[in-house]
Write a structure and sequence with these properties.
It comes from Plantactinospora siamensis. This is EAL domain-containing protein. With about 280 residues, this protein is an alpha/beta fold. Helices cover about 50% and strands about 20% of the residues. It has an eight-stranded mixed beta barrel, surrounded by six helices. α8 links the parallel β6 and β7. It is globular. Bound molecules: ligand C2E and magnesium ion (3 copies). One magnesium ion binds next to loops.
């Protein structure tokens, strides 16, 4: 007990430092969100597994912190969620991604952009207006915007959330269920959600490498489920040739992952779209 007590004293400065670090990071984030000049988007290609053509790109947010360098979302989105700053981050991401995709339509018409929407944002009535304003302002056809929502966000599926999803679909926006298979009760809500596609979580795709029969069966089951519901499918996190062969053999139409391309700045995505042979497949 005595050791515990002194351990407690030794710990205190470290804890205080951590708390200060956290408070500072929150203050920094508040500034970054207000000025938005430190926020950046990277775009990861989503490809057609038969032709290799780029069909779309997922916009992923990064924070170029003046002292800590380029931060990935897992470093700051949890803080953004706790403080409510996530709404401003999401709004900035939606607007910027729509602008980027509107600009690349002349290189690759119909190539969609996907953005991640937080659970908190989905619960807000103004999400529909934010999305409609963003596509209008950018001049992006709403059908070229996909909103990615996680199962956990959808599971809270109140009637208000379902109404909002209906409004978004009525705008023409596409709705993807992200990290599909990791939630708790996929089957109980799937028929009520007006989704257009499922993104198979990379935890299943990763296990395809070891010729894991259960992982194979899971991915195949999700692909069949999507077919039965008339939904598109994207296999996430494809890293190796073996994973690629497996998801292609299973009949997943689309894939995303390091095997096809890492997230990259807009300029590099545009270069990829410009280089692409014949995207129409003719
Ligand atoms: P996510 O939506 O599932 O995005 C895919 C994540 O997997 C990205 O991480 C991407 O870089 C990573 N990834 C892609 N291919 C591979 C692969 O082959 N192997 C491996 N190991 N990883 C791969 P990132 O950029 O760190 O984003 C993490 C999560 O943060 C995203 O997961 C998404 O849930 C969230 N997020 C990212 N940007 C935003 C945003 O603008 N708004 C909101 N609300 N959430 C975001
Ligand atoms: Mg996503
Ligand atoms: Mg995902
Ligand atoms: Mg994921």
């Amino acid at each position: 007990k005595a050791a515990g007590k002194s351990a407690y004293r030794i710990c205190t400065p470290a804890l205080r430092e951590a708390a200060v670090g956290r408070a500072e990071l929150i203050a920094d984030l508040r500034r970054a969100v207000r000025d938005t000049d430190q926020l950046e988007l990277e775009f990861q290609p989503i490809v057609d597994l038969c032709t290799g053509a780029v069909r779309g790109a997922e916009a992923l947010v990064r924070w170029r912190h003046p002292r800590h360098g380029l931060l990935r979302p897992d470093r700051f989105l949890p803080l953004a969620e706790e403080t409510g700053l996530i709404l401003a981050v999401d709004r900035w991401v939606i607007r910027s991604a729509c602008r980027a995709a509107a600009d690349w339509q002349d290189l690759a018409a119909g190539t969609a952009v996907a953005v991640n929407v937080s659970a908190g944002h989905l619960r807000r009535a103004d999400l529909t207006a934010t999305v409609a304003d963003a596509t209008d302002a950018a001049g992006l056809p709403p059908g070229s915007l996909t909103l990615e929502l996680t199962e956990s966000a959808l599971i809270e599926g109140t009637d208000a959330v379902l109404d909002r999803l209906g409004q978004l679909r009525a705008l023409g926006v596409r709705i993807a269920i992200d990290d599909f298979g990791t939630g708790y009760s996929a089957l109980s809500y799937l028929h009520r959600i007006p989704a257009t596609e499922l993104k198979i979580d990379r935890s299943f795709v990763r296990r395809l490498d070891d010729a894991d029969r259960r992982a194979y069966a899971t991915v195949e089951m999700i692909r069949r489920l999507a077919d039965a519901f008339g939904l598109g499918v994207v296999a996430e996190g494809v890293e190796t040739d073996a994973q690629h062969e497996a998801v292609a053999a299973i009949g997943c139409p689309h894939g995303q992952g390091y095997r096809y391309g890492r997230p990259r700045p807009l300029g590099e995505l545009r270069r990829l779209l410009a280089e692409a042979p014949d995207r129409t497949g003719h």
